[in-house]
Design goal:
The chain folds into 2 domains: 87 residues, Carboxypeptidase-like, regulatory domain (Immunoglobulin-like), CATH 2.60.40; 59 residues, no CATH class. It contains 3 helices and 13 strands; from the N terminus they run αβββββαββββββαββ. It is elongated, with a radius of gyration of 28 Å. Strands 1, 2, 5, 8 and 9 form a 5-stranded mixed beta sheet that branches. The protein is an alpha/beta fold and 186 residues long.
Length: 186
């Protein structure tokens, strides 16, 4: 009887060791992607976020540093996902929008995937004429017409006449345009 118990514990130990060894396996080497990226026919601007997703979970991300192209984007999968021996689909998202191009995970692979998105909404650029109103917190403004050849932009409190009042704030370079709204209230 003691031999059967010994064999039973050896089998359990062997099975437990196999399961533990599998769960402790290092993840496979990620697949790396590079290529071009266009949004509505134009090169994706610097700062565009590109993500890879596997089974709905983000597995890698990168920010575009050269307009219209990306490199070094990875997709990482777990040991158990890779160990299933099945095809692992990789999806690409650009600024949160699903790209129609896909790939499959390739252990340590380097793949060229050119991402082309169309029909993506873009924020309109508001042209501000000279003397026009701009509201605190507005984005996507083109103030070139308002500035013309001037070397200074000024902000006047509500109800003040720019012809006779002193500006509440002014700036002479683009760094000063990045003021917090609290600086401009009152």
């Amino acid at each position: 009887m003691s031999t059967k118990i010994l064999i039973f514990f050896l089998v359990i130990g062997l099975i437990t060791g196999i399961v533990a060894a599998d769960s402790m396996s290092p993840p496979p080497i990620p697949c790396t992607y590079y290529g071009t990226v266009t949004i509505n026919g134009a090169p994706a601007p610097v700062g565009t976020l590109i993500e890879t997703k596997v089974y709905g979970t983000v597995r890698g991300d990168i920010t575009v540093t050269t307009a219209g192209s990306y490199a070094g984007l990875t997709a990482q999968v777990s040991s158990s996902e890779y160990g299933c021996g099945c095809t692992i689909p990789v999806q690409f998202y650009v600024n949160g929008y699903l790209a129609p191009q896909t790939s499959t995970f390739s252990y340590g692979g380097v793949e060229n995937v050119n991402l082309v998105l169309t029909g993506i909404p873009t924020a309109p650029i508001k042209q501000v004429p000279q003397g026009g109103d701009v509201f605190i917190g507005e984005e996507g403004l083109d103030v070139s017409a308002a500035i013309g050849t001037a070397t200074q932009v000024a902000w006047f409190a509500s109800g003040n006449d720019p012809a006779t009042s002193t500006p509440r704030a002014d700036c002479r370079n683009s760094d000063q345009l990045l003021r917090l709204p609290a600086d401009l209230c009152g």
